[in-house]
């Protein structure tokens, strides 16, 4: 079963590219971030036409997440990260598909740091860890994917100096991510590419794509059960180079059914 993640950076602006990718790669589950549309504006019919069911959690102009499932509807969907009833940002959605709990997230960027946005990022990561610990303690097979907005290690960025002051690679961000991994989650892409140099994001500015100045912030974490079933993981890098593409490339993981 292939589970994929794609920060689409505006689902309406990228719809042709998104459908193109879905048809070409046909993931069983496609998790989308930054759909940037309210719930009523989500283009559900576009995905129904190519055989996908959809659940989504939208927000006007910002954020927003969705999960597409191939051929059959997801079970037990849930929207919003537990732990803060006042948090209205649409960044978290989960469901069960073929016996696996799929968690899709768009973690806060945190810039500028220091400041309230960075504080929100760290608090959000603490809440995420609590949710994932609950899944772990109940031994639920799970795959956690999305735009984590964390560059885990120096090997995951084209230039450490260029990103040194960014919230994505501050020691606090990295430590919060490491604590999640240390709870028993496997970073599929990182595990299969121990030398690093695998990027998932290239900025639109300064010719970053053309110069391959990227970094890895889109991750796929596997529970112990799913890690034992890991077959492969990768990045559909070529889709970043297409016309009117997102600034992220899709990432994917394959596990045995």
TrEMBL record:
All copies of domain Endonuclease/exonuclease/phosphatase, residue ranges: 4-248
Active-site residues, record numbering mapped to chain: 106, 147, 248
InterPro entries in the record: AP_endonuc_1, Endo/exonu/phosph_ase_sf, Endo/exonuclease/phosphatase, ExoIII-like
Site (Transition state stabilizer): 149
Similarity remark: Belongs to the DNA repair enzymes AP/ExoA family.
Cofactor annotation comment: Probably binds two magnesium or manganese ions per subunit.
Protein's UniProt name: Exodeoxyribonuclease III
Entry-linked PANTHER family: EXODEOXYRIBONUCLEASE III (PTHR43250:SF2)
Record-annotated site: Interaction with DNA substrate: 248
């Amino acid at each position: 079963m292939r589970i994929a993640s794609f920060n689409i950076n505006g689902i309406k602006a990228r719809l042709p590219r998104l459908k193109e990718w879905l048809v070409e790669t046909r993931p069983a589950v496609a998790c989308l971030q930054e759909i940037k549309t309210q719930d009523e504006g989500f283009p559900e019919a576009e995905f129904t036409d190519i055989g996908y069911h959809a659940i989504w959690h939208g927000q006007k102009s910002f954020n927003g997440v969705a999960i597409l499932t191939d051929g059959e509807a997801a079970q037990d969907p849930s929207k919003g990260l537990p732990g803060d009833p006042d948090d209205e940002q649409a960044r978290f959605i989960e469901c069960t598909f073929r016996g696996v709990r799929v968690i899709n997230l768009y973690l806060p960027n945190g810039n500028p740091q220091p400041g309230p946005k960075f504080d929100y990022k760290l608090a959000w990561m603490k809440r995420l860890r609590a949710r994932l610990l609950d899944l772990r303690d109940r031994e639920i097979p799970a795959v956690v994917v999305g735009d984590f907005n964390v560059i885990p290690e120096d090997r995951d960025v084209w230039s450490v100096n260029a990103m040194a002051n960014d919230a994505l690679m501050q020691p606090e961000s990295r430590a919060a991510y490491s604590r999640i991994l240390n709870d028993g989650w496997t970073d599929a892409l990182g595990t299969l590419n121990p030398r690093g140099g695998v990027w998932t994001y290239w900025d639109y500015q300064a010719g970053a794509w053309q110069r391959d100045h990227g970094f890895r912030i889109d991750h796929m974490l596997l529970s112990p059960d799913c890690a034992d079933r890991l077959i492969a993981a990768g990045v559909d890098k070529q889709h970043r180079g297409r016309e009117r593409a997102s600034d992220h490339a899709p990432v994917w993981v394959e596990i045995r059914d």
